[in-house]
Specification:
409 residues, mainly beta, eight-stranded mixed sheet, 3 helices, signal
Length: 409
């Protein structure tokens, strides 16, 4: 009797990872896509726009910051393995010239590992020209958050400020800033790969597959005390999210989105900007894959990138070959006043070769449309998608992909 749940679990995994997508080499809702490449620009898990604004809060300039780790197949504290934490990863910047340039980490401690995952940066203004940048760092002994500063006139040099470490940060994954000195951070698991021996190999996988609610969200605030020491305040505004992954604050600051990779959905929370801990559930967006990172565009739509075949992604993580791939899928969820029935599975995403409606029900109040889809040969293992409202360009990173994909209208 105790194993009766196993056929149900296997049936669910088989359904969730249906094979038709593997016949689609590449589909995108824009006119053309091409990959920007550079030496060692690979396995970029996250990306954020770094904006420079004028005194009237108008956008003057925008760059793309990337978090990349070519050694991920030897060191991945989320999925494994934990073989070798050398070499280190890197941050990259791409400007208007579309050239990817590696960012030098000035004053970074010698012997301190650097395996970047989630990142976020505060915009630059005339009052605060230098931007604070926070990076999740999966080091060999523990996961920390690294604090850097970047100046628009010197975008390839990030000055290291401090390492943020705490027992409250068990499994940091993604970051969403709420001010120049505060941010939300998702923690994906309670049981991590860092646990010893077979326990670390087994329990995190069980937590992921069974959707156990071990993930949570911290809010971290940095304060300068009168004696000039830095005081870090940690709170727990959200608990019990299975595989809490991507996290993002909406442009107007009123919504927080947190993806649950195990449950194939993005949780939404109403947010009060004056109290970062006062989060109220505002519904879910169902997606046809295991969502990774999320990002809002200027219109208030949510870009969601993820993995439609999680077993293929797991196999890719274990495969030493640089030619192996895993499917990619990116959707855009736009708010709408149309009332959709949760039973209506055919009324949306009608342009995609393999519709999201084949796997997910319609979400009332949100229109979900496929922006990019590939069996992995076009672009592999999509983890982040950003849309630039100035030109409509779509940027996509891949957890185990070479370069970064740019799609243009």
């Amino acid at each position: 009797m105790r194993f009766l749940w196993l056929p149900v679990l296997l049936a669910f995994v088989a359904w969730r990872n249906a094979r038709p997508l593997h016949q689609i080499a590449q589909y995108h809702a824009l006119k053309k896509c091409d990959t920007i490449k550079a030496d060692n620009l690979a396995f970029c898990e996250d990306a954020v726009f770094w904006d420079v604004r004028d005194a009237k809060d108008r956008l003057k300039d925008r760059r793309l910051i990337l978090s990349c780790d070519p050694g991920r197949k030897n060191w991945n504290t989320v999925m494994g393995p934990l073989r070798n934490p050398e070499p280190h990863g890197a941050l990259w910047v791409i400007g208007a010239d579309r050239r990817a340039k590696k960012i030098t980490l000035k004053d970074y401690p010698i012997g301190h590992d650097f395996h970047p995952l989630g990142i976020d940066i505060w915009h630059s203004t005339p009052a605060n020209v230098t931007s604070n940048l926070f990076v999740v760092n999966h080091g060999r002994n523990r996961t920390t958050i690294e604090h850097f500063t970047l100046h628009p006139k010197d975008p390839t040099n990030a000055k290291w400020v401090r390492t943020i470490s705490s027992r409250y940060l068990i499994s940091p994954n993604a970051i969403a800033m709420t001010s120049p000195t505060s941010f939300y951070v998702s923690n994906d698991h309670l049981l991590t790969r860092r646990l010893p021996s077979i326990i670390g190999h087994t329990l995190p996988l069980v937590e992921s597959l069974l959707g156990l609610p071990g993930g949570y969200v911290n809010h971290v605030s940095l304060h300068t005390a009168p004696d000039s020491t830095t005081v870090v305040r940690y709170t727990f505004p959200l608990l019990g999210i299975p595989f809490a992954n991507g996290i993002a604050v909406s442009p107007n600051g009123k919504l927080l989105a947190v993806s649950s990779s195990s449950m194939a959905r993005v949780h939404l929370y109403n947010r009060n900007a004056s109290n970062n801990d006062a989060l109220q559930p505002a519904g879910d967006i169902q997606v046809p894959f295991a969502p990774d990172n999320v990002a809002w565009d200027a219109s208030g739509a949510l870009l969601i990138a993820g993995h439609p075949d999680f077993p293929a992604l797991t196999a890719l993580a274990k495969n030493a070959s640089m030619t192996a791939t895993a499917p990619s899928w990116v959707v855009r969820a736009s708010p709408t006043t149309q009332k959709a029935s949760s039973n209506d599975t055919k009324a949306f995403d009608t342009q995609a070769p393999f519709s999201a409606s084949n796997r997910a029900s319609a979400t009332p109040g949100w229109l979900v449309e496929t922006m990019y889809q590939s069996n992995g040969t076009g672009f592999s293992s999509s983890s982040t998608a950003l849309r630039d409202d100035r030109n409509g360009k779509l940027w996509i990173t891949g957890l185990y992909a070479e370069g970064v994909l740019q799609c243009s209208p």
